[in-house]
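Hey, resending since the last one bounced:
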Amino acid sequence: MPTHAIPRRFVSFWPLQIGGWTLYTLATAITFGPYSHTGAEVLGIVAELGSCFFASFLLYFLCRYLWSKGVPLFRALSACATVSYALGVVCTIASRLTQMHWADQTLTFDWRFALTEAMSVCLTLEGWCALYFGIKHYQTVEQQKEKLLAIEATARDAQLLALHYQLQPHFFFNTLNAISSLVVSNQPLLATEMISRLAALLRNTLSFPDTHTVTLRDELAVVDEYLTIERIRFGSRLSVSIDVIDEANDAHVPRFLLQPLIENAIRHAIALSPAGGEITISARLAGHRLQIDIANDTFEMESTDAHQSHGVGLANTRARLKQIYGANNATLVLSGGAGRFVVSLQLPLITEPVVNSAVVG
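The structure tokens again:
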């Protein structure tokens, strides 16, 4: 057993042991209070209670041994009942001898009385044993729940890591293809600059800290590095507008959340249009939620289905939102019309990093 578990066990045992026997003593006093008793009888009751208290320590070691060996509950209680009766006889004898010593009149010792009275003490001690096993069972159930929650959290963290690393190669391969195109089209200076920008972006995105979220400000910095690379590809065909209120910058969002959505807009709109187009990124607070909109000019051949079919970006984004925020706490909605296509995100407004994958309400 780990050493740190020993103090915790005794901290939980002593308050229950002392508190339980104190309550039992008070209940006994209330029961016998209305009746008149001689001093010897009172001392006999005190001796019985005291001996029961010390007998419970013997039962404690017995119960702990039976529990550690995994003895079935019925057999364990049966063994405890036998020992409790034996201890009950001892407690009854102690009580009777105390009365005989302090009584004003001569009292005799009767074994039949001791054996019969021991049943009452036995029931008390057996109740103590049942309470011990009940508490141990409750603690075991709670420990199993904690372990299950820890396992589930680990599984969610692993899934988030898998989703995160699945997005990165997707983006990197696209960028490498763009660099290859620049080399083939005999544009070495642009290709060199794009490689330099990609290296800077790699340093940022490949690092994965203990938190699943970053501030929107940091996420936009990554987006800016990505857009710098894309501006090299598209030149004046790509226009970007960012409108984020100051209060939204400190809100936390999942790492690498926006880049796949912006890449989606470039692939299905800007890249298909000879004239290019504009991408607008806006963020504001809506009550206790963060609203992020990514809008782009549409190309006449573009459709909502085209965006939907871009499985890696949107599917993984939805999966990550579900893992971090829960099934219904974050939304991703696509809409189009009037020459614009919009991806709208609504997230719970949090200002602290999400260290593990526990659902944020």
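The chain has two domains: 5-147, 187-348.

Sorry for the duplicate.
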